[in-house]
Structures are given as structure tokens and as C-alpha cells.
Amino acid sequence: MRYDAEELKKLALREGFTAAGELNLKAVVFMPEVRDMCRADKCSAYGRNWRCPPACGSIEEATERAKKYSFGMLVQTVGKMEDDFDFETIEETSKKHAASFISMMRILKGKYDDILAMGAGTCARCKQCTYPDAPCRFPEDSYSSMEAYGLWVSRVCELSSLPYNYGKQTIAFTSCYLLK
């Protein structure tokens, strides 16, 4: 199937993203070194969330799954901070990005047979994840992050000709969708 990158970019912008662009599939390289950073557990989700390592699967499984997709789209939400410690803007931008991400994921799932959506940061669909005691409550609305899969996000952006850094006192959240 052929995809219209410009139409998907317009959709992304309508859904509230600041920037969007076609994902260079050659940049989709799942790296154990990136996955290993999850073990540091700075977000307190490693081993506590269905969509984070180790529950989201191995690097090898991610690589195999991604092989079946022929097109990708990167999406970003950029926030302008008042200073380097403007945590309010960081949190607002993160929430805006997550809402836009889920909204577009739902649209794409309704339009295409199979997509792989990778968000920014851990899935926060539920206040408390059921892992490992019960199945995911919302498997259709949950997602793993690009990092959880092992993608080096700044490198993916660079190879896809989309900025990763928008300058001083900005914060950017990046996610992607892979389509068959």
C-alpha cells in the first residue's frame, strides 16, 4: 500500500502535533544499548508496566515485528519553556503530546489494518498499571515508547530530517507510527 506522507502530516498537525515528517525506515534500528538505559529505571516503570521492558518484548522481537511495516511517520510536540526549570511547561507539553498521540493512533487504527505506534515515554493510560498481576486493561490504547523498543530517538530524527532539538528552553516529545 502507498501512503501519502503529506496527508498524514496534515492529519498529525490537525491532531495537535507541532511537527511531523516521514520516518526513514533505515533509521529504525533497535539497539540493546538504548534498551539497557531502561534498566536504570529513572521513570520508575521498568518491570512495572506492560509496555516497558521486560514485558514489551525483546530487541529481537521488536526487530522482527517492525520488519513487516513499509512506511513510518514521526510526530512531535514542542513546548517553549520560560527557563530551564519550567517543569509546568514540560508536564503540559507531555500531556498534550500523549493526548494527540492516542487520538492519532485511534484514527490510524480505524483507517489501516495494522499499525505499530511507539510513544514518548512510558504508557500512562492507567494511573496504576496491572503488570504483572493482571492483563492490560486497555490493550488497544496502550503503547510502548520508542526507547523501550530500543530506538535512539535523536538519531531517528536526524536520519529522518526532522529536528530533535528546537533550541534553548524548548522541550520536544517525539513518537512514531509504522504502517504496513
Structure write-up:
This is DUF2284 domain-containing protein. It comes from Candidatus Borkfalkia ceftriaxoniphila. InterPro entries: DUF2284_metal-binding. Pfam families: DUF2284 (PF10050). There is one protein chain. It is built from six helices and five strands. It starts with a helix and ends with a strand. The mean pLDDT is 94. The chain has one domain. It has helices at residues 5-14, 32-38, 59-66, 87-111, 146-149, 153-159; strands at 19-22, 71-80, 115-119, 144-145, 170-179.
What letter string, H or E per element, gives the SSE order? HEHHEHEEHHE
Mean pLDDT: 94
Strand order of the biggest β-sheet: 1-2-5-3-4
Biggest sheet descriptor: 5 strands, mixed
Strand residue content: 15-25%
Query: How many separate domains make up the residues?
Result: 1
The best one-word shape is globular
The computed structural class is: alpha+beta
Number of strands: 5
Rg (C-alpha, Å): 16 Å
Terminal Cα separation, in Å? Answer: 7 Å
Q: What's the helix count?
A: 6
| Low-confidence segments | none
Helix content: 25-40%
Write the layout of secondary structure elements.
Elements: H1 5-14, E1 19-22, H2 32-38, H3 59-66, E2 71-80, H4 87-111, E3 115-119, E4 144-145, H5 146-149, H6 153-159, E5 170-179
Parallel strand pairs: 3-4
Antiparallel strand pairs: 1-2, 2-5, 3-5
Protein name: DUF2284 domain-containing protein
InterPro entries: DUF2284_metal-binding
Pfam family, one: DUF2284
